[in-house]
Amino acid sequence: MKLKTNEELNKLFQDAKTCDEELFAEQKSNLLLVSGDHYKRIEKNLREQLRGSSLTSQQKVKITKNHTQKICNREVNGIAALAPDVKCTPANRDELQDKKAAQLYQAVKLFGDKRYKLAERREKWIQDFVEIGEVATLVIWNPNKGDLINYHQKVDEEGQALFTAPDGSEVRQTGNPELDQMLKPAPDKTRPVFSGDFVFENIYGFNLHRAPDADDMDDSPYVIVDKMSMPEDVKAMIAEDDPEREEKLEFVKKSSETTYRIFDTNKLSFGDDKGKVHLRYHYYRPCMEYPQGYYYIQTEFGIITSGELPFGVWPIAYTGHTRLPTSPRHRSRIRVIRPYQVEINRASSQRIQHQLTHGDDKMITRPGAKASQEGTLPGIRTYKAFGDVQIIPGRVGDQFAGYVVEQIAEMYQVADEEAVEDSGMATEPLAILYSSVKRSKKHGKQAKAIVAFLQDVYGIYFELAKHYFDEHHFIKAVGRSEMINIAEFRTADKASVSITVEAANSDATDMLGRFMFTQNALQYVGKNLPPEAVGQILSNMPFANSEQILKPIMQNYRNVENDILALDRGEKRPAEPDDTHDLYVTELTSRIKSPDFKALDPQIQQAYFEKREQHRAFKAEELRQLAMAKQGFVPMGGSLVKCDVYVTINGKQQRMVLPYETLQWAHDIVNKQGMAQDSLQKFAPADQVAIAGQATEGLMQQQNQTQGGVNVGNGTVEPVI
Fold this sequence. Notes:
Elements: H1 6-18, H2 21-35, H3 40-44, H4 46-52, H5 67-81, E1 86-90, H6 96-115, H7 118-131, E2 134-142, E3 148-153, E4 163-164, E5 170-171, H8 177-180, E6 184-185, E7 187-194, E8 197-203, E9 208-210, E10 222-229, H9 231-236, H10 245-256, E11 261-264, E12 269-272, E13 277-284, E14 294-298, E15 303-308, E16 316-320, E17 322-323, E18 330-331, H11 334-358, E19 362-365, E20 370-377, E21 380-386, E22 389-392, H12 398-414, H13 429-442, H14 444-468, H15 471-478, H16 486-491, E23 499-503, H17 508-525, H18 531-539, H19 547-568, H20 581-592, H21 602-630, E24 640-649, E25 652-659, H22 660-681, H23 685-705, E26 711-712, E27 715-716
Helix pairs in contact: 5-7, 6-15, 11-12, 13-17, 18-19, 19-20, 20-21, 21-22, 21-23
């Protein structure tokens, strides 16, 4: 691996910065145009000009009618209203490992949304995408962030570790085992230890540079990010045990004494930023020269730090609004509407200037003529004029009004926006869904670009989280109940378990459509579904926080999932008497019949068969106990009840007469037997035969112990399964 020198990095930075200078100037002016600050200095004095109603020949009026901001806000809101988001789904929906890995990834995704405020960042990304034309973010792991865990152990001037004695003093170890056991490591409060955390750093388009000969940003072999940083932050990047630390600190010192002309995105202006360090981050994609990728962090005077990309993961996500012809860069929609905004501002400024100059009525008199004011009455003013007097009405710049209106209309037409938004409120569900479809078509192309960008952001986050998240982070993300499946999260990669990140359009109207479909489906087929299936459907319904409500329904299914995943890892999961044996037998049989089951280790396969037999035996015992409960002496109490059944008694047809308790007993037996048969019919044919055989065998053994049967009236009852 050939490493680059600081001189080579400086030349690469200058070449990359020069090739897109025109685009960078346009992107910076876009921010000024959207904020209405490109006439900021003159607008400051406009109030005084309007108040005095007078202009000198050297003064000009410039005013901004900021339709650009309105159009950009509409597009930002339109894309945000589609709620572009991502969700993790299994690559193979029939494989339990894929489903469980997708669930864990989704839990980590939701944890990141909350901890790193990615929902709020999403809106800022959309805003940069629309206004600047490009959006990029850097996803890195910072070990100096997160929760405070502990402190480094304090050392003395000679580098020897210090300990805290029972009296509070700080001492070295004495060498006496009994005394040393009473000592505790002395914490160095100046050297805290943090758990580490992710950093999502926005990169503005004018701070992102690419290789001059790149045809696409994704194909650029390297990208360079330049930014201003505080000297103490840069010094913290240099490891304390770095043998070149003193030399590298000089690079920071020299750089901090240089004054740079930078664009301040907070003040939306250019200014001198003395005292900060101008850093350049060079990121190289994995290639033949750098198999794991590489990065350099340097100033103009030297390299601060360098190394391979952590775990070979490319840390930058990027997308753009409108592709520039023959260039890998992108422009904003402002590029198209800029000429109209300039003309609107110019014509509006001229209109105000005419109003200030010619606004009041003017009286012209000839030599010798004069005018005077006479008495006044309520609502009436009287003037007396001697000689020829001419009144010229004031002007308000009406000659520019039509032109301004035409330019505004054409500007909105070019921007594919309506000058006045539709305020109609649809209330019928299908009308709401139709309006949502229209809106999605209008901003569909831009929304797809944002979704692709989010896929890249979360993809980087997932890949790094698999390596950096420890139990501390994992428990916060998925909860303690899923700790046994942490291996599923760490080993799920693109090669073995492909996790696809799909777009999730979850705005209110889309959720309304899913709610209507789910409601109709449950209405017609819900009664034929098992509780676990209903729970799966309800857990995906919008507008409801159903975690606690569905926990009793879904807990059994989750237990089965966890046991199957444990079996796949080679662990033993013996059956328990209080397990839901119906569900276990069904899911285990489904797993055994899956295509990849034969690829498992023979011992794992045998563990599956053993566990299924255990649950079959428990189920057979349940059926045997039920059948035994059906047997016993028929109760004969209660009043006699005539039934609509005729029997022959002494050669005559008569209605059957039975005691009330006998009829009630028969009714209960039939119901219980029917429930047992319904439960048995849910299994696969092979499971039905196995369970029924075990139950019958148990009953026969029981009958042999009671000499062939159980007395019921005048005969015996055979077990019925």
